[in-house]
Amino acid sequence: MKVDKTWTLFLDRDGVINKEHPGDYVKTWEEFHFEPGALEAIARFNSLFGGIYIVTNQRGVGINVMTETDLQRIHNKMLSEIKSAGGRIDAIYYCPDADRKSPMRKPRPGMAIKAKEEHPQIDFSKSIMAGNSKSDMEFGRAAGMITVFIDDKGGRNGHRDETMDYIFYSLKEFADFLKIEK
């Protein structure tokens, strides 16, 4: 996989950038903890990708476990930490809908379509979706992207399925791979 500044990277949030809370939601900044190596990886992606976007389902807002203001606070602090570490995120797209069939909710490609509408330089055939769930992989496939599964829990033992082009244990391992490939 050879990428350059004409390529775009889409990242899931929970379980990829920050620790996931199985069966719960990250509702406050105090509950948000970066995955090991994630800040370094995102900083390294800056030199490789022309655009870096987060796409994340945030159903906790839709079911009133947290407010949109809570989510914005988390995202603002996350972006500040990423910037302080030398990284950048060009935009965050999130789906707060409670309805699991919402066209904006992954695995449907609504957030990718919105990103392309706002950033017409995005070419899905030169885009990568990195996430830790089947819906992330289906989202990437639906938009015509290369898919990278982040096996943050180690449950797949390196075994890919038909929705995954690549599999790594962390965002840092993926960044290391891209650096070698360059």
Which structural class fits the helix and strand makeup? alpha/beta
| Overall strand count | 6
Strand percentage lies at 15-25%
What share of residues is helical?
25-40%
Oligomer: single chain
SS field, number of helical segments: 6
User: Biggest sheet: strands side by side, in what order?
Assistant: 3-2-1-4-5-6
Largest sheet, strands/sense/barrel: 6 strands, parallel
**Tell me, what's the shape?**
globular
Uncertain ranges: none
Q: Could you tell me the radius of gyration in angstroms? A: 15 Å
Give the ordered list of helices and strands. EHEHHEHEHEEH
First and last CA, distance: 8 Å
Secondary structure topology:
Blueprint lengths: L7 E4 L26 H8 L5 E7 L1 H4 L5 H17 L6 E5 L14 H9 L8 E5 L2 H10 L2 E5 L15 E3 L2 H11 L1
Parallel strand pairs: 1-2, 1-4, 2-3, 4-5, 5-6
Helix pairs in contact: 1-6
Task: Give a verbal description of the structure.
There is one protein chain. The protein is of the alpha/beta class. It is 32% helix and 16% strand. The chain contains six helices and six strands; from the N terminus they run E-H-E-H-H-E-H-E-H-E-E-H. It has helices at residues 38-45, 59-62, 68-84, 110-118, 134-143, 171-181, and strands at 8-11, 51-57, 91-95, 127-131, 146-150, 166-168. Strands 3-2-1-4-5-6 form a six-stranded parallel beta sheet. It starts with 7 loop residues before the first strand and ends with a helix.
